[in-house]
Amino acid sequence: MDPDPQAGVQVGMRVVRGVDWKWGQQDGGEGGVGTVVELGRHGSPSTPDRTVVVQWDQGTRTNYRAGYLGAHDLLLYDNAQIGVRHPNIICDCCKKHGLRGMRWKCRVCLDYDLCTQCYMHNKHELAHAFDRYETAHSRPVTLSPRQGLLRIPLRGIFQGAKVVRGPDWEWGSQDGGEGKPGRVVDIRGWDVETGRSVASVTWADGTTNVYRVGHKGKVDLKCVGEAAGGFYYKDHLPRLGKPAELQRRVSADSQPFQHGDKVKCLLDTDVLREMQEGHGGWNPRMAEVSRPTVEPCVPSPLPPTPAACCDPRPSPQALGRVGKVVKVFGDGNLRVAVAGQRWTFSPSCLVAYRPEEDANLDVAERARENKSAAQLRRPVGGGAAPGHRSPQSCPQAH
Ligand SMILES: [Zn+2]
Ligand SMILES: [Zn+2]
Description:
Elements: E1 14-17, E2 34-39, E3 51-56, E4 61-65, E5 74-78, E6 85-90, E7 97-100, E8 103-106, E9 113-115, H1 116-120, E10 130-133, E11 141-142, E12 151-156, E13 162-165, E14 182-190, E15 194-203, E16 208-212, E17 221-225, E18 227-233, H2 244-252, E19 262-265, H3 269-280, H4 282-288, H5 315-318, E20 322-328, E21 334-338, E22 341-345, E23 350-352, H6 363-377
Antiparallel strand pairs: 1-2, 1-5, 2-3, 3-4, 6-7, 8-9, 8-10, 10-11, 12-18, 13-14, 13-17, 14-15, 15-16, 19-20, 19-23, 20-21, 21-22
The structure holds zinc ion (2 copies).
């Protein structure tokens, strides 16, 4: 039994595009908010394990990687909708008791906490570093100070948004008929159960009712005129589907590797086997929802055809072996030369290689690599290996 069930991915969570996003404007542009409405299941052909289906506020609904093949298309913006609450914590800015959603604790001041809204609205000293607590029971993740970091405006179903009935609507003609717009007058929680999970909407006839936007994983509304919903620091939100142990490392240092670094792959063969199983079933659904194929850039061993992605034969050779970073892609993924081949990895699958940790790398190989280091430092173009597709050539949906 999971000691902290709220730490996992759950329906109802509110999300924004994340580090491995390459799906164009499906979210309505960066800062667009969506709701997790379905979780992937092991063995499902359309939505495999470690993927989720997101209903974007502006109407698009499709699936994304939440750890699938090591990639994270989404960031968790808010988990108050699944009932995350810190019963004994008060936000020291807005004074709300029993802080809902993620908790942000100052590392400089004694006993000083903020809620997500206050943290993202630049309350308290920007030079003070904070710890992020995803749930009441999760371990803290230390963040850099907010000062000078990129802050993205949020857009979607917030107070002031113009909305029509959405995918889970089951409220008859309360809206005055399909397509008739209303105005969001408030976002609030549902009793004590969930937070920021329902919207009060006033319709043309003047009636006001409450509708689900995350509560129980349902979305009753669709946004036709989005409203500003504040901001978020994209570097400070957790990657959806990433285990907390890894998050600590990645949050502190979003791109830990450089060209020329020696790295070791962390994935084990079981994980890889699971990826292969899931991969075959991914494509049909992708086509159906306007994402033509999933090019699993992470880690994808030189696919000559989509079906041969994650070819089982060469894969295990890379696992646990030491490789060298030969290219850092714009999306943060890395091209790594290992075992005579080149592979693309998410940095989350790699650790820095330190010789004292592994005496297996023989001296001759080290000497040879040192000699060729100068050559490798020049920019490596697309000429990796036959069949190589760079992440840039992955299909972009529009
Ligand atoms: Zn607050
Ligand atoms: Zn402080």
